[in-house]
Design brief:
disordered C terminus, 3-stranded parallel beta sheet, 33 strands, disordered N terminus
Amino acid sequence: MSHNATLLRGSPYHRSPLWHWIRRKPWLLRRKLPQCGKNIVPAGAVSWSTSQQCTCLLEPFELGTFCTTSCGSFNLPNPSPSNSKVKSAKTRLKQMDEDPLGLPESVKDKPLGVLLQALWQLKHKPAEGAPATKQDLERKEDTIRDLERKEDTITHEAIIKETAKKLKGHMEEDEGKAIRLNEAHYEQILREVFPQVTTKKRPQIQEQATAVSTTSTIILVEDQIKEMIRKVLQEKSVHKPGAELQEDKSTKKPGPADLQEDISVKKIDTVDGIQSQHCIPDALIEETIAKIREIECTMKDQLQIKGIMDKIEDRLMSQDGQILVILKLDDDWVSRWEETKNAFSMFGRIAGALMLTFKDNIARAKEYCWPVREPIDYCLLGLYRDTALELTKNHMLEDNPKIYLDILDKCKQQEFCMKIFIHALHANPRRSHEELSKLHKALQPVPQASHTSGHNSFDSNIIAKKMFMFSYSDLPKEYRSCLLYLAIFPRRQHIRRSTLIGRWVVEGLITKQDWASSVRHANRCFDALINRWLVYPADIGATGQVKSCVIGDVVHGFITKIARKQRIIETRLSHYLARHFSIFNNLRIRRSDKINRFFEKLYEESFRVSIIKVLDLEGCKCFGGKNQRYLKDICRTMVLLKYLSLRGTDVKQLPSEINNLRELEVLDIRDTHVPESATVNVLLLKLKRLLAGHTVPRAGSNEISYVPEKIGKMLNMEVLSNVKAQNHQVLKDIGKLWQLRKLGVVIGDNDKLIRNLLRAISDLHECLKSLSITLPMTEQEPSNEDFPSTVLQYYKQPPKLLLESLSITGTTKKGQLLQVLTKHNDFLQLAKITLTGTRLKQDDLKVLNKLPNIVCLRLRDKAYIDSKLTFENDKFKNLKCFLVEGSNMTDILFEGGALKLEKITLCSTDGIQSLSGVEALPELKEVELNNNNNKLSLFDKVEKVSKVTLCSTKLSEDDLKMFAKIRYMRCLVLKEKACVESQIKFNKDEFPSLNLLIVDSSAITKIEFASGSAPKLEKIIWSFTRGTVGSLSGIGNLPKLKELEFNGELIPVELKEAINKHKNKPNLIHNKPENQYQEMGNIEEMGKAARFPSCWKSQD
């Protein structure tokens, strides 16, 4: 039954007619009304539906949105029968005159006891006029007999639980619209509203309890019940149903009859002038009603909390096990923690909560750990402690745990030391107690006289040195030599992995039975140095392999001292000269000499230079004009050379004397102007690597070296990169190089050439790991038919188990090489595929869909010609890196495929209008835009992108604001022509999570940070080529700033002053170009090198 009423709050009837009626008839607080069955139309104040009937107060009294705040009715959102149920419970409080539950005296005169009695009557009291059953009388007699006994046994918590049970049942009587809270929720609500307080009974109640015995109490209760029944029967016979209600809703004062009736009630409620202790006083009723109002407010909160917890539960439905909640204590408190903790306890799947804190807040944080436990130490020391214990838990002796923590405690002032120690444990967790004790003893402070105070100070550099030596001495001897070898390189210079591997091997630092074994061992050495954090990863390829590394300042200082002591590097040479030559060279070159001084003295120093094994001239512009003869002199005097790199030099010819270098194992002529015919007559039997061509393809460039005509005799060849096959015979000969691991070949669209290339690939199927094929670029669509049998007749064994990388450029007229090379996809281990000019369509990609191990797919210019590209459901399951280039494509759709994609790169893709489904990629973290006009809007729905790289995007200030509020972006890289304006301003509330900013653009001259911008920015790297860095203002508005790194000539004095004024005193790193570089211009500008921190992957 539903009533709809609207109360006019401004009227004199602000309190409901029901309220005034109850006030004028206090005796009816303890009496049950009959169901009148008549229409009730109150005058003025309340407008009722014409067809509604008043119901007995025992029934659910549904008032809809009936707002009677003064009397404590519920005003929950979304009106439901549950609101009236609470009102019904409150009304029932005023009808209780007996104690059917047998509650003790300490409970009956409290609001909690009154509420429980009311709820019991709503559930168990018989209908009006119905005779009491035998069971009712027996239950009543048992209750009375047990009254005194229960006084001592019933606890406050038991009353809470029983009341919660009754309240839950009452609120859920209407199955359709009931409020659904757990019993535990109701218990918590009641505990908050009715806290357990030990107090003495009120004086009046105590006196009444003393004056009246238990026996007389029972008699009085019986008499009251009989009298109430008599009065109800009289009312039924004298008054018409509903008449009294109409009369009592008026505003007239009570008449004589009413006063007489009130007097009779008072007579009933008193014995010898003393009020019965079992008649509920008005004050107690009012107090209970107030408590019901509190229950209403608390129930609203609990409903909100339950709604939140239900959403959490929905999110976690697909996950098994329990959840551990971790809190971070920023302001030394957590608002409404008690409510949160109680919600967790009732959730069922939350195992508990731990607090992240700093050590000085650890006592406070313990209050928030539930169940009681130690909080997580959020400081760096706590992080490394936990890591150390985790690494060594399976290898730890009983007396070992404390020694790990003590060692870290000694290093807590230097993260470098803690990191070195943890990485050493990771490399070898099985450490003896004697070894660790020795290290701990070595880290004991050595007092030194302080010149500034009377206290002893300790040089922290000593701890760093001790910790470095601990990790260094733990390395194998060969690995230690390889680490010291890095001292010849300038600090912070990026060193390619391939360069290091080749130089270590030819220098004899890694010696195994053959070249291939030595290379494998050298690769393990490189990884070991990375894993021990002795060198840092700089560029990480798409497959996860570290492509280059950099040496930190601290390690570089240590290894330089050791290398000079062991005479691995000459003290007379600067780093920028030493890196060009072998170690142990004994050259007589002063630090101030230029590289051309070395070439001029070649014949004078012929004895010394003849023993040099390595000559790395990468980037040296010293062969111009008449200096082309330098290369010929090198080939005549340095006959023991094993490693010769001319990469990036201005050399224009390979002399015939190149064949004098019979020991040569590595020849690198990439990015030079050597003509294509220069390599035809090369015959070096020990050559392992021949590297030619351009690392970045140049349009219309014909400078691609030919394959040596006698390549079939160079049986030790392992890498043959970017060479052109001038005839089919050299391709046959390549098939004889059974140690070849990497092949990059350029061929024409000729049946003989293709047939012999496939034959060579088949012959090398057991050794090839990387294959690159370049064909002519054409606008003609490739044939969908298979190659004729004459082309495939020698292709018997496709590369299966070892081939990891495949690159195809161009097309053929009679078939597709991609289909042929990936036909037996069940056995392929391909991880990286790069396609250019292959003119594929959607159907052609089906063969790639079936390759299970692809992690990197690059579709460069005209590799794909359809306007739409779709990643279908369950396809490309392991793809992590995707690059697309070209303007022909308009839509890329992710329809359940490529769900592990982490990075998307768009190059010159102005035609793309949508990236449908990109927001559903759960692992997408990195976006790179290159030569695109404002394609940031394609990613506006992606929330978890943490790194954005912009190059040649020419964005305006408004364009930058489009992604300035990306929540998860932590790294922003701005390269050349990334922005139109020369000034970049970070405004308030922009880049909320940014912690790393990299600027590598000569066009950007000013950066400004407004208050409230980039609040988490920790590091800025700025490379400039105009001599002096531009304006960098507002760094005082960056509360988390820790480090600034500048790569260039000068830093303004104003910037240095701003750094000194910053509260964090951020570390300033200034990498100046060496004078020799600028005087000669003979080394490629360092600013062109990639400058990414180790945590970011770069395109390899």
